């Protein structure tokens, strides 16, 4: 019964938050090891590369690609529905890249025992990145406008603390204190010349303050490449980016850092120990257009940035405190995390399930070829083997057990496929046809009435009856048994595209022959039946298209015989008497699932036989 339920009920999909939590728990120890290897000072470059490659393969097997895919889809959906997502300057792709960088950097700090990944991801990763990108569009985005003097002073102090200062700038205000000392006169030095040491400290602090003003994702990228020494290829693979994209982001970070340092950084700090050796051909004033005059040369500064980072004594990124999760943006993110996760079973999930799905589709396509392709277009199903001539079995009752063709002695053959007929086998078939002409003639001619002949009266014709040809099981050639499953299109009897007479026939067969428990396999049998369910005299015997074994085949044939005896479809002729015609039907039984399937097979419309009163000359002919 579970197989008839919808796919969503049989395999309920988990939410995005649950899927991310499961993947994060598995990937967290791998990311922690990676950061430890990068920070290890006792490992050589070759050893680090080997360890990082091994951890990268381990993370890929643990679902790193699926983890990145869910994050990217979540970021795109969030940008599409967020207030700032419609702004032309808002870069949704940049949000996705920075979110992945932040997740990898902060994942070792996530504690699964203290909470779920969804809330942690919202307040520590996505919302900080989102608000930082919004602040680039509007400086006051998301900030409350100060309403008091104290608030205005604190806001001014925040801006003043990040602004570059000159050592000659006075301390205080002239209106209150009169003549004021310069800022350089108020800073003490423990060793060396006070002026030189003060300049060294100021240049270093100026550079560190500029680093802290970078976006957190940019600082993480600068830290991994320039401070920890990771290769750009390794960083790109770990966050599912291309090396070229990582190089672009590093260049953009260097440009922003040069803008923050200001136009006089080279003039003020070029002679210090902090910048010594860097100004010779690498840190030069820009000589471009007038708008760029006095700024640090971008290309030269990008080359000097790794050495400046190492000399500055920077310890790495200090993560910002979590953002408040309230408001419309937080509610939107909660809604997206609670939504169903993408179906990775078929997209980028288990490789074994993908292979199994492809194999199932191939099997279904093969059986659809047997069932749905018209008989005229199907190649012969008989194997190129030599059968003995079968004796006439006209008097054998219907209940005689079927003798499978596989049990008969066969000649050795080298043909790999039972559906391939060679020229030699065609010649042997012609000889067999000539030698058994009498037997074939006896089979094709209508049999006289015997004790097994059944008389079924049609509606409105009480006395009219016809004799039914006995289904002889030994006359039916059975292909090898198959215990697989029929495709859904074959075993669904309630499909509206199936004619009503076929549906009635299928329902009557299911009621006439209950399938016993424990019976496995499926069979497809083709027989010529009238619209009232009765066989047509002179028509070919039932043909087993797909054999399910002796028991399954006997059950299908027995169901047809029982149906004829009971006259279950007698009322059908009344409803369709005007268009009553015989047809070639294919009856399929999937025994394991207790499912019947019936539909009309293709035939030549000019050679169709009426449902009653057919003569031996008016017979259907099939390839």
UniProtKB/TrEMBL annotation:
GO MF: DNA binding; sigma factor activity
Residues covered by region (Disordered): 382-497, 597-623
Biased composition range(s): Polar residues: 613-623
GO terms, biological process: DNA-templated transcription initiation
Record field: compositional bias (Low complexity): 411-444
Top-rank lineage group of the source organism: Bacteria
Gene3D superfamilies: 1.20.140.160
SUPFAM superfamilies, sorted: Sigma3 and sigma4 domains of RNA polymerase sigma factors
UniProt keywords, alphabetically: DNA-binding, Sigma factor, Transcription, Transcription regulation
Name of the protein described by the UniProt record: RNA polymerase sigma factor SigF
Organism: Gloeobacter kilaueensis (strain ATCC BAA-2537 / CCAP 1431/1 / ULC 316 / JS1)
